[in-house]
Structure formats: structure tokens, C-alpha cells
Amino acid sequence: MASSDSQKDTVGNHSIRQQLFVRYFTAVLVDLTVLNLFNEYWDNVVIESFTISLLAAVLLQVLLKVTIAFEHRIGAYFKAKSGTQAKVLRLLSAWAVLFGSKIAILEAINFFFGNGIVFGGAVHGLVAFIIVVTAILVAELVVQRIYNALA
Questions:
Q1: What pLDDT is recorded for position 3?
Q2: Could you list the residue range(s) of the whole structural domain that residue 31 is in?
């Protein structure tokens, strides 16, 4: 019989660690697919090699999750406060974090991959990058909803 500690770490037949692995593995594959589709079909996204796109997908996944966690933490801080000012500050801080993080993530990609990944077009590629990240998030959501519907 399983101990109570191991029961806390499992859901169904899979451990929490197994579930996290599958979730993030799938997310990286979705990111990789979206990146490579943009690379193939849009001139504003140029990726030098598959290896670079794979590493970029992992980096994007990590940085996007950190960004979302940071935004949620700030949102929770303002949500705990009452009043219109707190609501406005919550909205403004969420926008600032989510938009500002895209600039930071784009700079991280430039730092790690240099000319191995180039986002071109308006505002030094920022618009193209935001479009790609939005497509990644939408694709992840679609995959998650399909997975949930199969339950």
C-alpha cells in the first residue's frame, strides 16, 4: 500500500512530476512548431537552424512561465486591496509586465542566439515577436483545451 506522502504526489496513475513533464514537454513542442511555421511562412521571422529553434522554444517556455507567475503575483497584491485605484493599478501593472516582458524576452533571445533568430519588421521586430508569442499562447491554449476535452 502507498504511503500518504506518495499519495499527495500523485494524481490518478501519474505523479505530479510526470504531469509537469508532459505539460512542459508538450508546451515546448507546441512552441517549436509555431516558431518553425513562422520561420517557414513569414519573412519577418528567420531562424538559422532547427537546433536554435528548439533551444529558443525552451527559453521562451521558461521566460513566459516566469512572466506569467510574476504578473499573477503583482495582480494578487493589488487584488487584495480595495478601491478603484487598486483596480486601475492592477490593470496597468498587468499590462506593463506583460508588454515589458516581451521586450525583455526579445532581448534575451538576441543575447543567447544573436543573428541565429531574427524578428524583422516594425519596431525592430517587436511587432513580429509579439505576433509569434501570441500565436504560441493561442496554440498552447488550443492544445490544452483539446486535451481537457478528451478526459
A1: 46
A2: 23-149
